[in-house]
């Protein structure tokens, strides 16, 4: 994309105006979805709600797309050109909401604690605005409403297998991000979100009486040693300029004060920004497990699985989108950050492996500066970020389509 063309300022102004007019509906939709969350792979009613939104519009709508309740909508200008795909995920989390908001979750044990309700609300309104503007662009816009982002294997892979990326030239995705101030967008080239491995392991020793350790083989001692030793993989085996984390988040050693535990169950999580780092951690972890067996005479059942890959933004497309954001005159966009990355993981990474993609973060920190992390039962968003998101993604999509 050396010869950069852009949609006209008038076309973008029209988009912004339409979004401003529809902002209250966007917020109403978001609050409705917030009250009715459904967890990954169970989002039947949410999928139906999304499909219903498009009723009466002359767009192609496909439901139950992929392995779950995905909805794919094509807005066709009727003229040849590029196809740009816009993705929004719509699943919630198995979290009991504690925000005390008047529109808090009505579904016990389920909560939109990652902001996917906002993603869906902004995308529906953006899709409607772009539909109304279909005389103003060439080519096609494919709206990808993706279920089950939160739970591996994730919803993206099934949609790709079903053909969602066929004919797609570029793809854009967004995560609204509470730790970033409102008015900021992060749009960075290269690796922007971490890949992830998950670990489950049982360390089996031999139970016995606390007063006679020589007759038993203490799994708690072996597991404790292992958890501490495994930390040296990141500190001693990974290049200090590379990012990696290794967390043992579950240590099930609960027993009785005078009983030597026969087995301990551990669960862990690894994050990395390069496949090479992933391989180094896995190799050393497995080596250490073997060493533990020899050293303590225990037996280890290990499950080590790498699920979501590193999310790599396409350099050329991302530079194009950065330029688009810088020049699109979006009043609410105060700061464009082109360097930040996030250590969380995202199954948008699968789309980005297949087609040139850009994934951005939009600041949704509440105005008082008090925020709770994503997945917290007290998680809240700044709804003002929703129209900004719609304008930014819409303007970038229109600019991409201007380059036939
Ligand atoms: Zn999440
Ligand atoms: Zn999320």
What does this structure look like?
- By secondary structure, this protein is of the alpha/beta class.
- Helices cover 34% and strands 24% of the residues.
- The protein contains 9 helices and 16 strands.
- The strands form 4 sheets. The chain has an 8-stranded mixed beta sheet.
- β3, α3 and β4 form a beta-alpha-beta unit.
- α1 runs antiparallel to α3, α1 packs across α9 and α5 packs antiparallel against α6.
- 47% of the residues are buried.
- The model has no long low-confidence stretch (mean pLDDT 97).
- It binds zinc ion (2 copies).
- One zinc ion binds next to loops.
- It comes from Agrilactobacillus yilanensis.
Descriptive keywords:
404 residues, alpha/beta, Aminopeptidase, Alpha-Beta Plaits, 2 domains, binds zinc ion, Amidohydrolase, Peptidase_M20_dimer, Bact_exopeptidase_dim_dom
Task: State the gist of this model.
The chain has 404 residues and is α/β, with parallel strands linked by helices. The protein folds into two domains: 278 residues, Aminopeptidase (3-Layer(aba) Sandwich), CATH 3.40.630.10; 113 residues, Alpha-Beta Plaits, CATH 3.30.70.360.
Structural classification? alpha/beta
Instruction: Provide the spatial order of strands within the biggest beta sheet.
Output: 1-2-4-3-5-16-6-15
Q: What's the total helix number? A: 9
End-to-end separation: 10 Å
Average pLDDT number: 97
Number of domains: 2
**CATH architecture level-2 label of the largest domain:** 3-Layer(aba) Sandwich
């Amino acid at each position: 994309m050396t010869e950069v063309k852009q949609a006209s300022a008038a076309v973008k102004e029209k988009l912004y105006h339409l979004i401003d007019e529809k902002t209250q509906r966007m917020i109403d939709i978001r609050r409705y979805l917030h009250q009715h969350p459904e967890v990954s792979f169970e989002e039947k009613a949410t999928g139906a709600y999304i499909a219903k939104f498009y009723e009466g519009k002359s767009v192609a709508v496909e439901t139950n797309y992929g392995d779950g309740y995905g909805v794919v909508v094509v807005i066709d200008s009727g003229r040849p050109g590029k196809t740009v795909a816009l993705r929004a995920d719509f699943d919630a989390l198995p979290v009991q909401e504690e925000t005390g908001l008047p529109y808090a979750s009505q579904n016990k044990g389920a909560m939109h604690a990652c902001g996917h309700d906002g993603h869906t609300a902004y995308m529906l309104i953006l899709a409607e605005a772009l539909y109304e503007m279909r005389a103003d662009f060439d080519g096609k816009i494919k709206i990808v409403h993706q279920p089950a982002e939160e739970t591996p294997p994730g919803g993206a892979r099934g949609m790709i297998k079903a053909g969602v990326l066929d004919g797609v030239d570029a793809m854009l995705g967004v995560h609204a991000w509470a730790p970033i101030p409102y008015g900021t967008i992060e749009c960075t080239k290269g690796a922007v979100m971490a890949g992830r491995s998950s670990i489950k392991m049982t360390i089996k020793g031999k139970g016995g009486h606390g007063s006679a350790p020589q007759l038993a083989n203490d799994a708690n001692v072996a597991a404790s040693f292992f958890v501490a030793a495994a930390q040296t993989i990141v500190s001693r085996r990974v290049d200090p300029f590379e990012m990696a984390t290794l967390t043992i988040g579950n240590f099930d050693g609960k027993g009785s004060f005078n009983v030597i535990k026969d087995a301990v169950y551990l669960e862990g999580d690894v994050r990395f920004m390069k496949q090479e780092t992933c391989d180094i951690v896995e190799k050393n972890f497995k080596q250490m497990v073997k060493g533990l067996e020899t050293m303590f005479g225990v037996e280890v059942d290990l499950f080590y699985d790498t699920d979501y890959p590193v999310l790599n933004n396409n350099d050329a497309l991302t530079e194009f989108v950065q330029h688009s954001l810088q020049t699109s005159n979006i009043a609410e966009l105060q700061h464009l950050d082109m360097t930040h990355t996030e250590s969380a993981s995202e199954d948008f990474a699968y789309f980005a492996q297949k087609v040139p993609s850009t994934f951005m973060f939009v600041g949704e920190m509440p105005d008082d500066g008090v925020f709770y992390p994503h997945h917290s039962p007290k998680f809240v968003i700044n709804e003002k970020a929703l129209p900004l998101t719609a304008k930014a993604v819409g303007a970038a999509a229109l600019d991409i389509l201007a380059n036939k």
